[in-house]
Amino acid sequence: MLESSGEVVGERVLAERVGWLVAVVRQVAAGVVAERWNRADLDLLKAGAGLDGRALPAKGWMAVRRLGWGADVPVGVYVSDRVRRCAEEEAARALRLALHRGAVLAAITASWPADPRRRTDAEWTALRAALEAEGVAGGVSAAVIRNRTRQLRAYLDERGLSLAGLTGRAGVVEVEGPPGVAAQVLLAAADRQLIILERIGASEARLRVQLPLCARPATRRDWAWHVLAVPLPAQVPADARLRTPTLRVMDGRVRVDLPFTTAVPYAPVGGHTVAVGFDWGVNTLLTGAVGRLHAADPQDGRMRDGRVEGDGRPLIYDATPISAKLHRLRGHREALAARRDHYAALQAGLTTRAASRNTAPQYAPHAARDTARYEQVAALHERADREHARVCARIRRLNNALSWSAARWAVDQAVALGASVIYLEDLTTLEARGHRKGNATLSGQVRGRVADAIRHLAAKTGLAVVTVPARGTSRYCPRCGTGTAPLRHTPAPDRLNERGWKWAHCTRCGLSRDRDQAAAERIVTRGLLAQTHTITDRATGARTIRTVMEGNLSRVRRPRKPTRAARRARRTGTDLHPRPQSRHDRTRQNRTRRDRAKTGPTGKQPTTKTFSQMPDRRPVPAPTLTVGQRPAGQAPQANSPTAVRTGLVRDPHHRTGFHKVKATPVLALAEYGSGRHHATPARKA
Fold first, then answer.
1. What are the pLDDT digits (tens) for 547-596?
2. Residue 212 host element (H or E)
3. CB burial class (10 A; 0-12, 13-18, 19+) of residue 374?
4. I need a labelling partner for 327 at 20 to 30 A (CA). Which of 44, 86, 282, 341 fits?
5. Are both 415 and 550 inside the same structural domain?
6. Which domain holds residue 255?
7. Strand 274-280 vs strand 421-425: parallel, antiparallel, or unpaired?
């Protein structure tokens, strides 16, 4: 709505005016980046001091102005100083990101491996040390390192240089050109003279912003205040504090990226006793295991060394159907991209031939035919490009939904099990090898999103999320430790003599279980034993453990539930199995038992022996139906455990949001047994 006249502006007109603002900001920011894309200016920005010797501020637009890199407005265009701030903030972020890429390239150059395609453990250690020396140790994944290595190799091969000739000459400025500027407006750099944000209800906010009335505003009268009604989704709490948004235009609609902050409980760094560890599985997307650090001995008050207990309950999030769907979509996307590139090459060829024929009079009669062919190919190219964009958007939406579903499930499991920390594998030290497809490809694509979503959801419930080193978690046994004989990976538990990757078997203690579950147990053991070595990144707040402390995870079984006769004897104070006093009484008791075994207690039906031991995992009760016959299964009971969740989910039975995903139900964990505290090897298959 236009504030001055009260005129209601349509969605198409509003998107057009926001697009004009985005175009002006993008043009101004791109000019600053292109002008300062040289080694001298980047070194000046990296030094962190302005022309007057003062330290550069954290805000990008203020740092740019202190360096004297003010933005130049296009001739004939009028913009306010607040719009220039938004452009300078965008340019400063792009240049500071280039400094980060330059530091990664410098570390790779300083620790160049013998074979760039595969680094050894010693070369990875040298690279991590070089990254720490450059000040970018945190947040650099193996994928980033691999991509930057390929970029540097391509630069060397193109110019015929060696590593000796590269030293001191190749930086981010020489290896790549000026980065592109995003089509957005960072309103966080402005003040109330350009934007005013107010919350007018639990589900709506009002954004008051100045927008241009034409593509090239020449005077101040070409700008006007617009009032935008911003609906708030259900996940925004009523007490949340709204922050300054970012404006974008996507698919002809205005998008408002509206951040908000809420107060969350503090998650302690140490002192954890119950934890859940998750492995980025090869067989499944996520595989978890629960562990408890043994309490202090009541007699001497000391902690038992390396004593982590677990009950062997697997936590599995199997997204195989979604993985297959994403694999098919990726194949379709690649085919569309190849078709689009083919049509683009045909267009370029037709354009070149038309230009050459225009210079020769004898080819004039063929101009109409060439024009018709060009229009036909252009229509096919536009169609292929549109289908490619549609498939890409579908893949992004499915990846995003799957990431948040897996993160919600993981946090729900930790809350239900009473854990205070979640341990994950460190993504910066994790790199897939070989030619695996399916779930491994899916895991490599969404694992970063899942980790970020777990941190976000865990912060709301007061859970700490810590990453541990990933190397060696699937190599050694979680029961008997890092012995001389590593785990044998086999295809299945009944094919222990064959080589595979799905199943893990220990020839030393007899462990035989799923490979990912064994790795999850080692992850939770590493985290609990090395929690005193937790490091917190000041910039991002992410917590990680870089010290590897190995220990064994012992199996603890729950005590058997007492029978009805035992509970009656305990209540009445009588003997559970009274011993006969005479030979005649023993003979009569044995005869009675034989008779009951033949005819039953009433003489009409035989007696079957029953057991009242509770299973290790309580089954999920069958749902109650209002009409029709109840399906087979355990009937709902009042004493069933209450399922714990941290937010809304779509599927009340699987709690995943997908009807094809198989996941472990979110159930509370019973008390640990108080029996023998030593490792109990599983039975060999």
1. 888 888 887 765 666 777 777 887 787 766 665 556 566 566 666 555 55
2. strand 204-212
3. middle
4. 341
5. yes
6. 185-261
7. parallel
